[in-house]
Amino acid sequence: MLAVARAKINLFLGVGERRADGYHDLDTIMTAIDRADILDISLAPRPKLAVQPEDLPPGQTLPEGSDNLVWRAAELLGGKDRGWRITLYKTIPMGAGLGGGSSDAAVVLQVLAGLWKLENADLEALAAQLGSDVPFFLRSGAVRATGRGDLLEPMGPLPTMHAVVAVPDVQVSTAEAYSWLDAAGDRPRRSSDPFQAALRSGDPATIAAAVWNDFEPVVTARVPAIGALREKLLEKGAMGAALTGSGSGVYGFFPTPDEATSVAFSLKREGIWAVYAATAASPTDFGRDPMASGSGLVG
Ligand code: C5P
To answer: Rounded to two decimals, what is the model's pTM?
Structure first.
């Protein structure tokens, strides 16, 4: 069965205090975008994972075998005795704040729970064990996440917005980015209320102008290429631009699909990995039979 695992971007990301458990309190608003990994999932005698890069920035190393969150998701749901076979076609860059690994894991939970008929499995709880932003990928629409990122509330519909996602040739470790924030000492805290008000306006330009990410100052100070890429999106006419997650990916919103497509193209001509991706209502889309659909997605 072919399943689609979309990427996410953080429209607003506020980081609060470091907690006793080592995690930080978050206040973030995320949406899925139309950039997706494709997973081909079936039952098999033994666990088997193949990972294939499709269109990624140079120098990305793909976690194979049990190092991959996909493997851990299948094992957490089904134990060591159940077999499965997954081919993971990667188009979402890693270490970029786009949630690709988390999205893959969420899809594996959903699809294998269906194939194994585990109707009573608590997928949200299993998702939270796999990573702070895995539960988001079981939801739809714009979602606010608080706590360590696993307490979710729907934020209502988001108008379709036209993003260019650009990723420099560098990966940022999430844990390291949090430690940079801790080392930065006192920071002004920003409430998500103004962003939520922008969201309620339903106006893409207003929403784009309100995007915010607390990681930006520390991450761009350590990796200037990331800040430069965000500036470049604004120079090329973005209505608003921000880091996603802890980076290294940045996005900018453009008024139309054509503008976003041509900006992504011009960045590519400069040797920068960039794609046009619209915001999407649902992070996952699964249940396709490759033989029935004949989609040729994964030739
Ligand atoms: O939950 P996840 O495994 O994705 O988190 C990776 C790392 O990011 C954690 O080990 C922790 O250092 C940091 N983190 C954090 N606060 C959060 C989420 C993640 O400090 N809310």
So the answer is: 0.94
